[in-house]
């Protein structure tokens, strides 16, 4: 049996749904697309330059083995999909090696090494384009990759190796029905401004994750975006949920994910707003250990979600949050109280204004009071 065939069989055996292979050439079209829109992608220009040139990271690179993992084999609880993107619930996004979805790529890497391959460690590639070049996905107008028979709820992982292998035929096309624009219409922030063109700065997921100190623009979420975030605190699936290419998958009967069902009852917004170290470590990090490294950003996102729900019952929790030691949490709790806009919310804001020492929090309180 050829090495290519052995690799593909092993990948399927450890749970990947599809596997394809391409030469480890550069991706000039990918880099051109990102650099042409550098004002939107300033946070990722270095990463894109690296990913576009696999051999700049691993000079011996000859092939890229790219895989599809179907993370939608079980049901996702509604209590979680309201707030958390499915890919994070599925625990495969950058999963640690001691978790099942981290162990799978590790098994694959060990198999490749035992088969005589050098495997690039941390070698980045543009996963969606690599998988389309390898014929295992095509594109949606919402920018996601779609695998035949599954849809877009997939996780792509590539392995760069120093061996020449047998290569697959590309499927670099858009596979959407003619005239469909459902994803563009459904996006709350109009982040998809043309088919296959996303402005990440408007995407809810970006605003959940990358509005952090150390990123362009820091932790400030623009007011017009806050209002459209709804209850999403870590990722947004709306442009995939409305997609007819996912309908069959989303409506198919599936078993529950017992782990998610077990923790879902604790995934209430006040638990995020008043995040304890224990909740952060035992409930948040097993799902969301990837982008947000400080609990204050989850607290901020929960405050926005509570503000958008505009439920007067949340005033009590937001009042407590106005005494949080983190300025960021107080700023967004003030914004949320302004959205709820009851007499009680106004009283809390006025009392906080009298004692608040942070200028940025004072400013948010003033803005919130003006909106009531
Ligand atoms: S993930 Fe959400 S905010 Fe981002 S493009 Fe899709 S629908 Fe829009
Ligand atoms: S909603 Fe329509 S246009 Fe958007 S990705 Fe799905 S099929 Fe394509």
Automatic annotation (TrEMBL):
Domain of life of the source: Bacteria
GO biological process: tRNA queuosine(34) biosynthetic process
Record InterPro entries: 4Fe4S_Fe-S-bd, ARM-like, ARM-type_fold, PBS_lyase_HEAT, QueG
Tagged with keyword Lyase: yes
Alphabetized SUPFAM superfamilies for the sequence: 4Fe-4S ferredoxins, ARM repeat
A GO term for molecular function: epoxyqueuosine reductase activity
Domain 4Fe-4S ferredoxin-type: from-to ranges: 163-197
Keywords for the protein's UniProt record, in alphabetical order: 4Fe-4S, Iron, Iron-sulfur, Lyase, Metal-binding
Keyword Iron-sulfur: yes
UniProt protein name: PBS lyase HEAT domain protein repeat-containing protein
Source species of the chain: Pelosinus fermentans JBW45
């Amino acid at each position: 049996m050829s090495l290519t065939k052995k690799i593909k069989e092993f990948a399927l055996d450890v749970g990947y749904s599809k596997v394809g292979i391409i030469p480890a050439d550069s991706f000039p079209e990918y880099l051109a697309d990102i650099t042409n829109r550098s004002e939107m992608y300033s946070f990722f220009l270095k990463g894109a330059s690296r990913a576009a040139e696999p051999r700049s990271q691993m000079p011996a690179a000859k092939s890229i083995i790219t895989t599809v993992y179907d993370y939608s084999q079980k049901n996702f609880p509604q209590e979680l999909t309201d707030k958390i993107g499915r890919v994070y619930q599925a625990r495969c996004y950058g999963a640690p090696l001691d978790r099942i979805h981290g162990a799978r790529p590790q098994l694959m890497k060990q198999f490749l090494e035992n088969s005589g391959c050098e495997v690039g460690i941390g070698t980045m590639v543009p996963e969606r384009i690599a998988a389309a070049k390898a014929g295992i996905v095509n594109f949606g107008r919402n920018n996601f990759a779609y695998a035949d028979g599954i849809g877009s709820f997939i996780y792509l992982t590539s392995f760069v190796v120093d061996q020449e292998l047998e290569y697959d035929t590309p499927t670099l096309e858009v596979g959407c029905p003619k005239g469909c624009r459902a994803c563009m219409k459904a996006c709350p922030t109009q982040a998809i401004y043309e088919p296959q063109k996303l402005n990440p700065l408007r995407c809810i997921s970006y605003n959940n994750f990358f509005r952090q100190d150390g990123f362009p623009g820091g932790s400030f979420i623009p007011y017009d975006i806050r209002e459209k975030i709804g209850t999403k605190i870590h990722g947004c699936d709306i442009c995939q949920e409305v997609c007819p290419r996912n309908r069959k998958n989303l409506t198919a009967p599936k078993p529950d994910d017992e782990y998610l069902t077990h923790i879902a009852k604790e995934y209430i917004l006040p638990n995020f707003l008043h995040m304890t170290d224990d909740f952060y470590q035992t409930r948040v990090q097993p799902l969301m250990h990837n982008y947000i490294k400080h609990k204050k950003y989850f607290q901020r996102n929960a405050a926005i979600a509570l503000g958008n729900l505009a439920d007067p019952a949340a005033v009590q929790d937001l009042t407590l949050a106005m005494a949080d030691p983190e300025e960021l949490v107080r700023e967004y709790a003030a914004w949320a109280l302004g959205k709820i806009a009851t007499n009680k919310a106004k009283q809390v804001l006025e009392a906080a204004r009298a004692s608040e020492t942070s200028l940025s929090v004072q400013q948010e309180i003033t803005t919130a009071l003006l909106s009531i």
